[in-house]
Amino acid sequence: SELLDLPANTQILKQGQMNEHLYFLISGQIGVYVDGGRVSKMQRKGDLLGEMSVISNKAAGATILSETPVTLLRMDSRIFLNMSGPDRD
User: Fold this and answer.
1) Which of 36, 39, 59, 66 is least crowded, fewest Cβ atoms below 10 Å from its Cβ?
2) pLDDT digits over 34-66, tens only?
3) Among the listed residues 67, 58, 75, 54, the one whose alpha carbon sits nearest the alpha carbon of residue 2
């Protein structure tokens, strides 16, 4: 995993594109957009992004944009999905 510090107005995920990462919000505010309209925001430490596309192995269902500067923890889902035992928990 790696820490990402991103400026405001950065696209993190794009609706319709494949995604192989899980993102955990450390700080800042994220906007969730479906078909161009904002449907939600996330701003709590630990909020999870990208999990539905990883679990379903389908394209992202929403575009995710940073609305303020954000810090994220990004994890490669292939590593996560291959973990076993206590490491996966």
Assistant:
1) 36
2) 999 999 999 999 999 998 888 888 999 999 999
3) 75
The SS3 call for residue 78 is: helix
List strands edge to edge, sheet with 70-76.
2-6, 70-76, 21-27, 48-49
Amino acid at 46: G
**Both tokens assigned to 31:** 């906007």
- Max distance between CA atoms of the chain, in angstroms, equals 40
Here the tokens at position 29 are 């505010």
Kindly report the length of the chain.
89
3-state SS assignment for residue 24 = strand
